[in-house]
Amino acid sequence: MNIQLNPLNEQQSGALTILSVGLNRDQLLWINGYFQGLLVSSGNTQSASTPIQAKNSKQLKILYGTHTGRSKTIAGKLAEKLASRGVEVQSVALDDYKTRQLSSESNLVFIVSTHGEGEPPAMAEDFYNYITGKRAPQLPILKYSVVALGDKSYKFFCKTGIDIDQALSKSGAKAILPILKLDVDYEDEAEAWINQFTSVFAEIPATPTSENPIAINAPKSEQYSRKNPFKATVIDKVKITGRDSDKEVYHVELSLEGSGISYEPGDSVGILANNPPLLVDAILKQTSLSGDEPVTLKEDTISLREALSDRLEITVLTRDVIQEYYEKTGNQKLQEIIENDGQLDKYLYGHDVLDLLEEFPFKLMAQDFACILRSFPPRLYSISSSQSAVGDEVHVTVATVRYSYKGRERAGACSTYLADRIDIDSQVSVFIEKNPAFKLPENEETPVILVGAGTGVAPYRAFLQHREASNQKGKTWLFFGERRFHSDFLYQLEWQKLLKDGYLEKIDVAFSRDQEEKVYVQHRLLENQKEIFEWLDNGANIYLCGDMKQMARDVQKTLLRIFENEGGMSEEKALEYLKTLKKEKRFQTDVY
Ligand SMILES: Cc1cc2nc3c(=O)[nH]c(=O)nc-3n(C[C@H](O)[C@H](O)[C@H](O)COP(=O)(O)OP(=O)(O)OC[C@H]3O[C@@H](n4cnc5c(N)ncnc54)[C@H](O)[C@@H]3O)c2cc1C
Ligand SMILES: Cc1cc2nc3c(=O)[nH]c(=O)nc-3n(C[C@H](O)[C@H](O)[C@H](O)COP(=O)(O)O)c2cc1C
To answer: pTM for the full model?
Structure first.
C-alpha cells in the first residue's frame, strides 16, 4: 500500500492542529474548499478534479419527482457526474424533501416529469402545490435549474417542470441554465445537458451552507437501456381473447437469457417496434418519393423507407409535427388547427401522418420530410410476469390497436408489430422501465385490492406470480373488468387456480356487455363498499391499472363515494383520505 507521509514540518503541523480543534462540520467543509481552491490556483488541477467526495465545499441538491423512474435515473447520472468533479451532491425524492429547508438552499436542480393530464407525479404533488401556491417563500439566495420530462403528444407538455421553474423565478431565485424540456426521446439531450450543467456549475463560486450534504443515492446505469436495448427472442405468442371477441389481446413471452436484465413486479418493458408497412407504402406514394432517397437522422444516413419504417413516428401526430409542416407549407388551415386547442385535440386523436399529407398536400424533399417527423418512441407495456416465477423471461399482455377512420383501416404501430409482424423466434428490442410507484407492499401481510380493466390486469398477474413463487398468502382481492365473460376473461384459468391455492382470496368481475345495462369495475367496487372500506381501514393497499381517461377517473370517483358512504366523511374529508392513501403509497396507479 502506498502510504502518504505527513509532508508538513513541525511548526506547520502544530498550526494545523491548533486550527482544527473544535471546528464544526461546516467549518471543516469550508476549510476543505479553501485548500482545494489553493490547490487549483497553484496549478495542480489533477488533484482538484480527483473523484473523491467532500473535496470541495460546493454543494448541490437534486430534487426529483418521478412516476416511472426516468427523472430519478437522470438525477442519478447528474449526481455521479457532479460527484466526480468534487461537488458534494445529494439526490432526494421530492416526497422526502422538507420544504422548510428551501430558504436555506443555495443550489438546487429539479428533475421532474408530468403525468395525468398535465399533473405532477404523485410524489411531487405536495411540493408542487407548495411552490406554486400562496405560501411559497422568497428565495433570493437560491440558484437553480429545472429539467422537465414530458411527452409532446400530451397537451400540457412538461407542465410540472414549467410551473416549478416559473414559481422559482417569481420567488427571486436565479436560474443557472434555462429550463430543459425533454420529450420521450430524451437520452442524448439529457446527457448533453448534464455535461453543460457540470461545466457551468464549476464556474459558480462556492457558497458554504448550513446544509448537511454528502450521500449519493444514485442508481448505477443498467447495461441495457432505451438507447441500447436487448434483443429478446420471442418464445411464445398466444391470442388470449376468444374468436368472437371484438378485442384482440396477445400474451407474448420474451426470453431475456444472457442479458442479466432484472425487473420487479410493477415494472414495464419498453419495446422498439417498426411501423405498419402498408402505411409506409401509402406515405411514400402520397409524397411521390421512392423511399430510396438517403436521409440523415442524428448521425446515421439511411434510406427514407427505412427511416419511415423503423425510426420515425407515422401513426401518431403531435403538435410539433403539425407546426413544422405548417412552417414548410404555409397552409392557413394548419395554422388555424394549431391555434385552436379544441380543433388541435380533435385532429391529434385518430389522424396520422398520411392524413396530414393527403389533406394538406405539399411537395417535400426526402430530408425535409424526415426532419418534420418525430423520432419513433418505444411503447411501454406493464410486465405480466414475475422473475421469481419465470426466471429469464418477460411476459406482456397487449391489446391490438386497430380502428377505421375516414374510410381507412388504421393500425397502432407497436401493438400490431407484436400482433402481426413478429412470431416465435423473432427478435424484439427491449429494455426495462422501472416503476417504483407501482409496487407490492414490503410487508407481505398487508392486504391488497387490485383493480384493473382489460390489459390493466397485466401487472396483477406479475404480483400474484411473485406471491405464489414466494409462498406469500396475504389477503388479495382482484377486481377485473372487460366486455364479455366468454371471450374476454383474460387469464381466467390462472386466477381460478390462484383462488383454489389460496393466493387470491376474492375475485369480482364486471363484464360490461353481458347484460342490458353496462357494468364496470367501479360498480363492483360500490356493491362491495362496506368490505372495501373495512379492508382499507385495516391497512390494505389499493392498486389501479388500465385506461387513464375513463376507467381511472370513474374508479377514483367511486372510491370517494365509498369513503363518504362508509366512512361517514364529507366530500372534503373523502378527498383528503384519498390524498393520504396516495401519499402513503397505499393507493398506487399505473394508468395509460
Ligand atoms: C406505463 C404504461 C403501461 C402500458 N401497459 C400496457 C399493457 O400492459 N398493455 C397494452 O396493451 N398497452 C399498454 N400500454 C399502452 C401502450 O404503451 C401503447 O400505447 C399501445 O399499445 C398503443 O400503441 P401502438 O403503437 O400500437 O399505437 P400508436 O401507434 O401509438 O397509435 C395510438 C393512437 O391511435 C389513435 N387511436 C387509437 N384508437 C383509436 C380509435 N379507436 N379511434 C381513433 N383513434 C384511435 C390515437 O391517436 C392513439 O394515440 C401502456 C402504456 C404505458 C404508458
Ligand atoms: C399516463 C401518462 C400521462 C402523461 N401525461 C403527460 C402530460 O400531461 N404532459 C407531458 O408532458 N407528459 C406526460 N406524460 C409523459 C411523461 O412525463 C414522460 O413519459 C416522462 O418521461 C416520464 O418521466 P418519469 O419516469 O420521471 O415519471 C404522461 C405519461 C403517462 C404514462
So the answer is: 0.76
